[in-house]
Write a structure and sequence with these properties.
Number of helices: 11
CATH superfamily: Aldolase class I
Number of strands: 10
Largest sheet: 8 strands, mixed
Distance between the termini: 60 Å
CATH topology: TIM Barrel
Mean pLDDT: 88
Strand order of the largest sheet: 1-2-5-6-7-8-9-10
Low-confidence stretches: none
Helix content: 40-55%
CATH class: Alpha Beta
Number of domains: 1
Radius of gyration: 18 Å
Shape: globular
Strand content: 5-15%
Structural class: alpha/beta
CATH architecture: Alpha-Beta Barrel
Oligomer: single chain
Order of helices and strands: HEHHEEEHEHEHEHHEHEHEH
Length: 297
């Protein structure tokens, strides 16, 4: 039986000129966003603010995660002009913080790492004021691919563990929990100064103790930022929602995460990896500035 969505998970959608402008700009430049491809519940709000999370390397994924609305299959060849068009969109939208993700491209020798780097370098070259956050696949754990991305100097490196390890066979059958933790750990090893970030969905039948263990595992690999949101099934063909988690429980998890030592925590029913991402970065940057000032740097 389909569960009835509670009031705290209902949003009133209002279409305005800004949303239409963002849609038209992205369509005109033939750019994909995870907002559209993953059926994000925050799309109207983000587009109304004039923001979006860009999705590079096409819109067809080589994996078949059962929580995700993005199409799975054989991807098209890399679009070499995509970085230029993405930088143009960022300029037109007036973004100061850019979030770039991608489908998983296991068909490519480096998993698409070089294209990530090319995109980041294009932004550095033409929009030096913009800060950059990347949300990458696991690159099959290949440290050399990870190095390619990190050497292009994004400001935040994000890789989501998505759920608790027990649920991986059901939710992420082609991924590996320990490998995802290793990606975050290697990112810190390659660039100790970078902010690392991860996210999980809840409401998939995980227990509180399992959530707590994921938080501890992420702290152990040096993760700075954590996002926790409600899983919402994109269709009847995807993994079903086990339960809707109340805002009070999200607050309890947020408190636990802060106590464990995360520098920034976003926890709530509508929280997604890149939702209000600029706020997290500004918060951490201001802390860093204050610490340096206190130390006389």
């Amino acid at each position: 039986m389909q569960k009835i969505r509670p009031d705290w998970l209902k949003k009133r959608i209002k279409i305005d000129d800004q949303q239409i402008r963002v849609h038209e700009l992205l369509d005109g430049l033939h750019l994909n966003t995870v907002c559209q491809s993953a059926v994000c519940p925050n799309i109207a709000e983000c587009f109304a603010k004039g923001t979006a999370t860009f999705m590079i390397l096409g819109n067809i994924c080589t994996r078949n995660c059962r929580f995700c609305a993005i199409e799975s299959g054989k991807p098209l060849p890399i679009d070499d002009d995509e970085p230029r068009r993405l930088a143009l969109a960022v300029k037109e939208m007036g973004l100061k913080h850019v979030v770039i993700t991608s489908v998983t491209r296991d068909d490519l020798p480096d998993g698409g790492a070089s294209h990530f780097a090319k995109t980041i370098n294009e932004l550095h070259k033409n929009l030096s004021y913009a800060t950059i956050e990347v949300l990458t696949p696991d690159f099959k754990g290949d440290e050399s691919a990870l190095s390619i991305v990190l050497k292009s100097k994004p400001d935040i490196f994000n890789h989501n563990v998505e759920t608790v390890p027990r649920l991986y066979p059901k939710v992420r059958p082609m991924a590996d929990y320990d490998r995802s933790l290793s990606v975050l750990e290697k990112a810190k090893k390659i660039d100790p100064q970078i902010y690392t970030k991860s996210g999980i969905m809840i409401g998939l039948s995980e227990t509180r103790s399992e959530i707590s263990q994921v938080l501890k595992d992420l702290i152990a690999v040096g993760c700075d930022i954590i996002t926790i949101g409600q899983y919402l099934s994109p269709s009847n063909l995807h993994v079903r929602i086990h339960e809707y988690i109340s805002p009070e429980v999200f607050k309890d998890i947020e408190y636990e995460a802060r106590e464990l030592g995360f520098s920034y925590v976003a926890s709530g029913p509508f929280v997604r990896s890149s939702f209000n991402a600029e706020e997290a970065f500004e918060f951490l940057r201001n802390i860093n500035r204050r610490v340096k000032s206190e130390k006389g740097y």
